[in-house]
């Protein structure tokens, strides 16, 4: 083999390895994002289920903050309660943020007035 053939072969191997490392890094980031999304979804759903289970009180219109702990991590969040055209219902959005205050997930539901 000539020196040029060896250099070309090394260049091909280097490009292939670089592409492999980039793909592996992308998979790692996607796995972390999926993990964060799953835990944030749990937090949001837990807040909304707690509202539905508390049949003795009705959430007041406005925003309130909460913190949810999942698998050793704290997720800040906000419950946003809004009035609806039907006075017997309220729309509630549970928004969960990451450490940089970027929205991870938003889950919405409608809560009926107690006794309706």
UniProtKB/TrEMBL annotation:
Keywords annotated in UniProt: Cell inner membrane, Cell membrane, Membrane, Methylation
Record flagged with keyword Lipid biosynthesis: no
Annotated source species: Aquabacterium lacunae
GO biological process: protein secretion by the type II secretion system
GO cellular component: plasma membrane; type II protein secretion system complex
Subunit structure: Type II secretion is composed of four main components: the outer membrane complex, the inner membrane complex, the cytoplasmic secretion ATPase and the periplasm-spanning pseudopilus.
Gene3D superfamilies: GSPII I/J protein-like
The name this protein goes by in its record: Type II secretion system protein I
Family in the record: Belongs to the GSP I family.
UniProt topology in membrane: Single-pass membrane protein
Type II secretion system protein GspI C-terminal domain residues: 34-111
């Amino acid at each position: 083999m000539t020196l040029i053939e060896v250099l070309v072969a090394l260049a091909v191997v280097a490009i292939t390895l670089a592409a492999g490392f980039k793909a592996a890094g992308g998979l790692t980031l996607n796995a972390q994002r999926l993990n964060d999304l799953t835990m944030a979804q749990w937090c949001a759903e837990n807040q909304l289920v707690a509202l539905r289970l508390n049949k003795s009180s009705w959430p007041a219109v406005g925003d309130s903050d909460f913190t949810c702990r999942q698998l050793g991590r704290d997720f800040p969040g906000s419950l946003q309660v809004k009035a609806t055209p039907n006075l017997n219902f309220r729309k509630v959005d549970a928004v969960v943020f990451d450490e940089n205050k970027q929205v991870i997930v938003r889950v919405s539901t409608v809560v009926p007035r107690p006794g309706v």
